[in-house]
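In this section we walk through a basic example: taking a raw amino acid sequence and producing a predicted 3D structure, encoded as C-alpha coordinates. The instruction is simple. Fold the sequence below.
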Amino acid sequence: MKPELAQQQDRPPEPHDQHAAPANCLNCNAGISGNYCHNCGQETRTHAPSFMEFAHEFVGHYVALEGRLWGTFTRLLFRPGALTNEYLAGRRKRYVEPLRLYLTLSILFFALLKFTNTEVINLDAKTPQPAAEVAQAVKQEAQGIRREIIANGTVKDKEGRDVMLQETVRSKSPRMADAIENFDKLPAERKGQALSDGFFRYGPYAMFALMPLFALYLKVLYLGSGRRYGEHLLFALHTSSFAFVMFAAIKLIPEDNFFTFVLLCWLVGYLPWAMRRVYGGSRSATALRWTVLMMAHGISLAIAITVAMGAGVATAH
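The resulting C-alpha coordinate sequence is shown next.
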Protein backbone atom coordinates (compact mmCIF):
# COMPACT_ATOMS: atom_id res chain seq x y z
CA MET A 1 0.00 0.00 0.00
CA LYS A 2 1.29 3.46 -0.86
CA PRO A 3 2.43 5.53 2.17
CA GLU A 4 0.20 8.49 1.27
CA LEU A 5 -2.84 6.21 0.92
CA ALA A 6 -2.13 4.55 4.28
CA GLN A 7 -1.84 7.94 5.95
CA GLN A 8 -5.10 9.00 4.32
CA GLN A 9 -6.89 5.95 5.75
CA ASP A 10 -5.44 6.46 9.24
CA ARG A 11 -6.54 10.06 9.64
CA PRO A 12 -10.16 10.81 10.64
CA PRO A 13 -12.55 11.70 7.80
CA GLU A 14 -12.78 15.34 6.92
CA PRO A 15 -16.23 16.94 6.87
CA HIS A 16 -17.69 17.52 3.44
CA ASP A 17 -20.89 18.75 1.88
CA GLN A 18 -23.30 15.87 2.40
CA HIS A 19 -25.38 16.84 -0.63
CA ALA A 20 -22.51 17.42 -3.10
CA ALA A 21 -20.90 14.56 -4.99
CA PRO A 22 -17.14 14.37 -4.20
CA ALA A 23 -14.56 14.14 -6.95
CA ASN A 24 -13.26 10.84 -5.62
CA CYS A 25 -15.05 7.86 -4.11
CA LEU A 26 -14.96 8.01 -0.32
CA ASN A 27 -14.61 4.21 -0.19
CA CYS A 28 -11.88 3.37 -2.74
CA ASN A 29 -10.67 6.88 -3.75
CA ALA A 30 -11.32 6.23 -7.44
CA GLY A 31 -12.34 9.12 -9.66
CA ILE A 32 -16.12 9.20 -10.05
CA SER A 33 -18.86 10.74 -12.11
CA GLY A 34 -22.48 10.02 -11.47
CA ASN A 35 -24.37 8.61 -8.50
CA TYR A 36 -22.34 5.40 -8.09
CA CYS A 37 -18.64 4.57 -8.14
CA HIS A 38 -17.73 2.56 -11.23
CA ASN A 39 -14.99 0.78 -9.27
CA CYS A 40 -16.68 -0.43 -6.04
CA GLY A 41 -20.35 0.43 -6.59
CA GLN A 42 -20.79 2.65 -3.54
CA GLU A 43 -23.13 5.64 -3.75
CA THR A 44 -21.24 8.87 -4.32
CA ARG A 45 -23.52 11.00 -2.17
CA THR A 46 -23.16 9.91 1.45
CA HIS A 47 -24.45 11.35 4.69
CA ALA A 48 -25.00 10.30 8.29
CA PRO A 49 -27.79 7.69 8.27
CA SER A 50 -31.00 8.25 10.20
CA PHE A 51 -33.13 5.68 11.98
CA MET A 52 -35.70 5.73 9.17
CA GLU A 53 -32.98 5.00 6.63
CA PHE A 54 -31.82 2.02 8.68
CA ALA A 55 -35.42 0.77 8.80
CA HIS A 56 -35.85 1.36 5.07
CA GLU A 57 -32.63 -0.48 4.33
CA PHE A 58 -33.73 -3.46 6.45
CA VAL A 59 -37.20 -3.64 4.90
CA GLY A 60 -35.78 -3.04 1.45
CA HIS A 61 -33.29 -5.85 1.77
CA TYR A 62 -35.57 -8.47 3.27
CA VAL A 63 -38.91 -7.51 1.79
CA ALA A 64 -38.54 -5.27 -1.26
CA LEU A 65 -35.25 -6.32 -2.82
CA GLU A 66 -35.98 -9.71 -1.39
CA GLY A 67 -39.49 -9.23 -2.70
CA ARG A 68 -38.44 -12.45 -4.37
CA LEU A 69 -39.22 -13.89 -0.95
CA TRP A 70 -42.92 -13.24 -1.52
CA GLY A 71 -42.78 -14.55 -5.07
CA THR A 72 -41.01 -17.64 -3.82
CA PHE A 73 -43.52 -18.41 -1.10
CA THR A 74 -46.63 -17.75 -3.16
CA ARG A 75 -45.46 -20.21 -5.79
CA LEU A 76 -44.10 -22.68 -3.25
CA LEU A 77 -47.26 -22.81 -1.15
CA PHE A 78 -50.09 -22.27 -3.62
CA ARG A 79 -48.83 -23.40 -7.03
CA PRO A 80 -47.33 -26.90 -6.77
CA GLY A 81 -44.33 -27.34 -9.03
CA ALA A 82 -44.43 -23.77 -10.38
CA LEU A 83 -41.32 -22.68 -8.48
CA THR A 84 -39.35 -25.62 -9.88
CA ASN A 85 -40.53 -24.85 -13.42
CA GLU A 86 -39.54 -21.20 -13.03
CA TYR A 87 -36.06 -22.17 -11.91
CA LEU A 88 -35.63 -24.66 -14.75
CA ALA A 89 -36.83 -22.04 -17.23
CA GLY A 90 -33.92 -19.82 -16.17
CA ARG A 91 -35.92 -17.27 -14.17
CA ARG A 92 -33.82 -17.65 -11.04
CA LYS A 93 -32.74 -14.21 -9.83
CA ARG A 94 -36.29 -13.29 -8.81
CA TYR A 95 -36.58 -16.25 -6.39
CA VAL A 96 -34.75 -17.50 -3.28
CA GLU A 97 -32.11 -20.11 -4.06
CA PRO A 98 -33.44 -23.68 -3.52
CA LEU A 99 -30.73 -24.80 -1.09
CA ARG A 100 -30.95 -21.61 0.94
CA LEU A 101 -34.74 -21.95 1.07
CA TYR A 102 -34.55 -25.57 2.23
CA LEU A 103 -31.91 -24.97 4.91
CA THR A 104 -33.71 -21.92 6.30
CA LEU A 105 -37.08 -23.66 6.57
CA SER A 106 -35.48 -26.81 7.95
CA ILE A 107 -33.74 -24.88 10.72
CA LEU A 108 -36.92 -22.95 11.55
CA PHE A 109 -38.99 -26.14 11.64
CA PHE A 110 -36.69 -28.01 14.03
CA ALA A 111 -36.30 -24.86 16.15
CA LEU A 112 -40.09 -24.67 16.39
CA LEU A 113 -40.26 -28.28 17.57
CA LYS A 114 -37.49 -27.65 20.07
CA PHE A 115 -38.82 -24.43 21.58
CA THR A 116 -42.41 -25.67 21.77
CA ASN A 117 -41.15 -28.63 23.83
CA THR A 118 -42.48 -31.16 21.35
CA GLU A 119 -42.30 -34.63 22.86
CA VAL A 120 -40.72 -36.89 20.25
CA ILE A 121 -41.17 -40.05 22.30
CA ASN A 122 -42.67 -40.67 25.72
CA LEU A 123 -41.53 -43.80 27.49
CA ASP A 124 -43.51 -42.89 30.60
CA ALA A 125 -46.89 -42.76 28.91
CA LYS A 126 -49.48 -45.18 30.21
CA THR A 127 -50.11 -47.98 27.78
CA PRO A 128 -53.68 -49.18 27.08
CA GLN A 129 -54.48 -52.39 28.95
CA PRO A 130 -54.30 -54.93 26.07
CA ALA A 131 -51.00 -53.50 24.86
CA ALA A 132 -49.73 -53.34 28.43
CA GLU A 133 -50.39 -57.06 28.87
CA VAL A 134 -48.45 -57.85 25.71
CA ALA A 135 -45.63 -55.58 26.81
CA GLN A 136 -45.49 -57.30 30.20
CA ALA A 137 -45.33 -60.72 28.56
CA VAL A 138 -42.53 -59.58 26.26
CA LYS A 139 -40.70 -58.07 29.20
CA GLN A 140 -40.90 -61.32 31.19
CA GLU A 141 -39.68 -63.30 28.19
CA ALA A 142 -36.80 -60.87 27.69
CA GLN A 143 -35.84 -61.16 31.36
CA GLY A 144 -35.77 -64.94 31.04
CA ILE A 145 -33.51 -64.72 27.99
CA ARG A 146 -31.29 -62.26 29.78
CA ARG A 147 -30.91 -64.57 32.80
CA GLU A 148 -30.00 -67.42 30.48
CA ILE A 149 -27.38 -65.31 28.74
CA ILE A 150 -25.89 -64.23 32.07
CA ALA A 151 -25.84 -67.84 33.26
CA ASN A 152 -24.01 -69.43 30.33
CA GLY A 153 -23.48 -66.71 27.71
CA THR A 154 -25.81 -68.41 25.24
CA VAL A 155 -29.46 -68.68 24.41
CA LYS A 156 -31.36 -71.36 22.54
CA ASP A 157 -33.01 -70.50 19.25
CA LYS A 158 -36.22 -72.17 17.99
CA GLU A 159 -34.26 -75.16 16.72
CA GLY A 160 -32.38 -75.63 19.97
CA ARG A 161 -29.05 -74.22 18.78
CA ASP A 162 -26.89 -72.01 21.00
CA VAL A 163 -26.71 -68.37 19.98
CA MET A 164 -23.90 -66.30 21.50
CA LEU A 165 -25.76 -63.00 21.58
CA GLN A 166 -23.87 -60.94 24.11
CA GLU A 167 -20.41 -62.00 22.96
CA THR A 168 -21.35 -61.59 19.29
CA VAL A 169 -22.56 -58.01 19.74
CA ARG A 170 -19.56 -57.07 21.87
CA SER A 171 -17.05 -58.64 19.48
CA LYS A 172 -18.58 -56.87 16.51
CA SER A 173 -18.93 -53.45 18.12
CA PRO A 174 -17.80 -53.10 21.74
CA ARG A 175 -18.61 -49.39 21.79
CA MET A 176 -22.17 -50.08 20.66
CA ALA A 177 -22.54 -52.78 23.30
CA ASP A 178 -21.34 -50.36 25.99
CA ALA A 179 -23.70 -47.65 24.74
CA ILE A 180 -26.67 -50.02 24.81
CA GLU A 181 -25.79 -51.18 28.33
CA ASN A 182 -25.46 -47.58 29.53
CA PHE A 183 -28.75 -46.65 27.90
CA ASP A 184 -30.47 -49.67 29.46
CA LYS A 185 -29.40 -48.51 32.94
CA LEU A 186 -31.01 -45.09 32.54
CA PRO A 187 -34.47 -44.36 34.00
CA ALA A 188 -37.37 -44.12 31.53
CA GLU A 189 -37.36 -40.31 31.64
CA ARG A 190 -33.66 -40.13 30.74
CA LYS A 191 -34.14 -42.69 27.96
CA GLY A 192 -36.85 -40.56 26.39
CA GLN A 193 -34.67 -37.47 26.76
CA ALA A 194 -31.73 -39.23 25.09
CA LEU A 195 -33.89 -40.25 22.13
CA SER A 196 -35.30 -36.73 21.83
CA ASP A 197 -31.82 -35.21 22.01
CA GLY A 198 -30.70 -37.50 19.22
CA PHE A 199 -33.68 -36.49 17.09
CA PHE A 200 -33.12 -32.75 17.51
CA ARG A 201 -29.34 -32.92 17.23
CA TYR A 202 -29.01 -35.26 14.27
CA GLY A 203 -32.48 -35.08 12.73
CA PRO A 204 -31.77 -32.06 10.47
CA TYR A 205 -28.65 -33.77 9.09
CA ALA A 206 -30.57 -37.00 8.53
CA MET A 207 -33.35 -35.15 6.71
CA PHE A 208 -30.86 -33.32 4.53
CA ALA A 209 -29.10 -36.59 3.71
CA LEU A 210 -32.42 -37.89 2.38
CA MET A 211 -32.58 -35.25 -0.35
CA PRO A 212 -30.12 -36.98 -2.73
CA LEU A 213 -31.91 -40.26 -2.09
CA PHE A 214 -35.31 -38.70 -2.79
CA ALA A 215 -33.91 -37.33 -6.05
CA LEU A 216 -32.58 -40.78 -6.90
CA TYR A 217 -36.05 -42.27 -6.44
CA LEU A 218 -37.41 -39.66 -8.84
CA LYS A 219 -34.63 -40.40 -11.31
CA VAL A 220 -35.57 -44.08 -11.32
CA LEU A 221 -39.32 -43.39 -11.52
CA TYR A 222 -38.85 -41.06 -14.47
CA LEU A 223 -36.27 -43.01 -16.45
CA GLY A 224 -36.40 -42.03 -20.08
CA SER A 225 -37.81 -38.59 -19.35
CA GLY A 226 -34.52 -36.90 -20.22
CA ARG A 227 -34.39 -35.18 -16.84
CA ARG A 228 -31.00 -34.78 -15.22
CA TYR A 229 -30.33 -35.76 -11.64
CA GLY A 230 -29.91 -32.10 -10.64
CA GLU A 231 -33.44 -31.35 -11.80
CA HIS A 232 -34.81 -34.10 -9.57
CA LEU A 233 -32.75 -32.74 -6.67
CA LEU A 234 -34.18 -29.28 -7.27
CA PHE A 235 -37.70 -30.71 -7.15
CA ALA A 236 -36.84 -32.59 -3.94
CA LEU A 237 -35.59 -29.40 -2.25
CA HIS A 238 -38.70 -27.44 -3.19
CA THR A 239 -41.23 -30.09 -2.17
CA SER A 240 -39.41 -30.74 1.11
CA SER A 241 -39.38 -27.00 1.84
CA PHE A 242 -43.14 -26.97 1.33
CA ALA A 243 -43.51 -29.92 3.72
CA PHE A 244 -41.59 -28.07 6.44
CA VAL A 245 -43.95 -25.09 6.13
CA MET A 246 -47.03 -27.30 6.29
CA PHE A 247 -45.86 -29.31 9.30
CA ALA A 248 -44.92 -26.08 11.09
CA ALA A 249 -48.38 -24.62 10.37
CA ILE A 250 -50.07 -27.77 11.66
CA LYS A 251 -47.89 -27.66 14.76
CA LEU A 252 -48.83 -24.05 15.47
CA ILE A 253 -52.57 -24.78 15.37
CA PRO A 254 -53.59 -25.25 19.03
CA GLU A 255 -56.14 -28.01 18.49
CA ASP A 256 -57.33 -30.34 15.76
CA ASN A 257 -59.95 -28.53 13.72
CA PHE A 258 -61.19 -28.08 10.18
CA PHE A 259 -58.17 -25.95 9.27
CA THR A 260 -55.86 -28.79 10.29
CA PHE A 261 -57.83 -31.12 8.06
CA VAL A 262 -57.48 -28.69 5.14
CA LEU A 263 -53.71 -28.43 5.66
CA LEU A 264 -53.37 -32.22 5.79
CA CYS A 265 -55.34 -32.60 2.56
CA TRP A 266 -53.19 -29.96 0.86
CA LEU A 267 -50.05 -31.68 2.17
CA VAL A 268 -51.11 -35.02 0.70
CA GLY A 269 -52.34 -33.64 -2.61
CA TYR A 270 -49.47 -31.22 -3.20
CA LEU A 271 -46.79 -33.70 -4.27
CA PRO A 272 -48.69 -35.54 -7.03
CA TRP A 273 -49.94 -32.19 -8.35
CA ALA A 274 -46.37 -30.86 -8.40
CA MET A 275 -45.10 -34.04 -10.05
CA ARG A 276 -47.63 -33.75 -12.86
CA ARG A 277 -46.89 -30.05 -13.40
CA VAL A 278 -43.12 -30.56 -13.54
CA TYR A 279 -42.82 -33.97 -15.18
CA GLY A 280 -46.09 -34.27 -17.08
CA GLY A 281 -47.78 -37.63 -17.64
CA SER A 282 -51.26 -38.95 -17.07
CA ARG A 283 -53.04 -38.86 -13.72
CA SER A 284 -52.90 -42.64 -13.32
CA ALA A 285 -49.17 -42.81 -14.08
CA THR A 286 -48.49 -39.94 -11.68
CA ALA A 287 -50.58 -41.61 -8.96
CA LEU A 288 -48.63 -44.84 -9.39
CA ARG A 289 -45.28 -43.08 -9.25
CA TRP A 290 -46.42 -41.05 -6.23
CA THR A 291 -47.44 -44.24 -4.38
CA VAL A 292 -44.09 -45.91 -5.02
CA LEU A 293 -42.23 -42.72 -4.10
CA MET A 294 -44.11 -42.35 -0.82
CA MET A 295 -43.45 -45.95 0.16
CA ALA A 296 -39.74 -45.70 -0.60
CA HIS A 297 -39.35 -42.30 1.03
CA GLY A 298 -41.39 -43.37 4.07
CA ILE A 299 -39.05 -46.30 4.68
CA SER A 300 -36.00 -44.07 4.20
CA LEU A 301 -37.46 -41.48 6.57
CA ALA A 302 -38.13 -44.08 9.27
CA ILE A 303 -34.56 -45.37 8.97
CA ALA A 304 -33.12 -41.85 9.09
CA ILE A 305 -35.08 -40.95 12.24
CA THR A 306 -34.09 -44.26 13.84
CA VAL A 307 -30.43 -43.58 13.07
CA ALA A 308 -30.72 -40.07 14.52
CA MET A 309 -32.28 -41.39 17.72
CA GLY A 310 -29.71 -44.20 17.80
CA ALA A 311 -27.01 -41.54 17.77
CA GLY A 312 -28.73 -40.05 20.80
CA VAL A 313 -28.56 -43.47 22.50
CA ALA A 314 -24.87 -43.78 21.65
CA THR A 315 -24.09 -40.41 23.25
CA ALA A 316 -26.40 -40.80 26.26
CA HIS A 317 -24.82 -40.84 29.71
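Looking at the output, two observations stand out. Confidence is low (pLDDT under 50) at residues 125-129. The first helix runs from residue 3 to 10. In the next section we compare this with other chains.
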